Amino acid sequence: MRCLSLTGLREMRLTDLPSPRLVNSTDVLLRIGCVGVCGSDMHYYTTGHIGSQKVSYPFVVGHECSGTIEDVGPGVTHLRPGDRVAVDPAMPCHACDQCRADRTHTCRNLRFLGCPNQAGGCLCDYLVMPASSCFVLPDALTMEHGMLLEPLSIGAYAAHLAGSLRDKRVAILGFGPIGISVLLAARAAGAANVYISDPLAYRQMFALQCGATWSGTPEALTETIQMREPLNLDVVFECCGQQAAVDQAVDLLKPGGKLMLIGIPGVDRFSFPMDLLRRHELCIQNVRRQNHCVEAAMQLTETFQDLVDAMITHRFEPQETQAAFDLVSDYSDGVIKAMIRFS
What we know:
By secondary structure, the protein is of the alpha/beta class.
């Protein structure tokens, strides 16, 4: 089968590897349809690591995917060959204290697609996954929608963790696919005003198309909030992994406000102004991927289908994968989400 492997920093190679086989009775064999290029993939592509997770070459990345069931193990009862599925890239053990507490996303023994020392990625023709990580797509959703359910699930989970957003005033700092997913989830939850900042003009324009109250550069956001929201904001979603965005978020939150940290930083540490954090009793909530939000992401897709469709700006064939990664890494050609079409 065709397989795309990282072979060095900003280097990829198309190779031919044996197709995987079913091992566990509860596994399924997937023929991959679509694979999304994610911002976390960029960390592995450009730096070779995310924090302590370091790539050993060659390594297959990729975790946003959809596919068709080719075969199922004897213990699989809810899936059958021919089913079109979205894939949750997380593979929990279902036995540890975290799994028993319904926190499978922080499983002690979690394996995650395209994550060094855990599992290879999905940039290949075929993939074996636990059946519990596969979700049948409704007839109304395409394979492309199925691929997007992974980032949309993160947006849905972040909105859920933030608490009730009805009539709340929020900001989203960074408007890539995760920021877009958060905006759609915030709209569905009834947020009153949603302010978007992003340094890229085309993403600012797309934010308005997606229903943002206001969008502009990070430099213009504070002045805008101070004019329009004199009591500041209820929730700020940080979706870009930048220290400057964290600093801005703390300044923009009202007393008792909540900062949601979603973006993956390129550094090991953030700092916070503890005096302001303490006096305003601000809450800082990290968002670790998603937990039981695939169905919610399907609902978002059906509600905002035109906007979800518009997230995919570029489509590539497998032999063009490195060009897709370069495009996303360099924010070229108005890219929001690039996708690799396997079948």
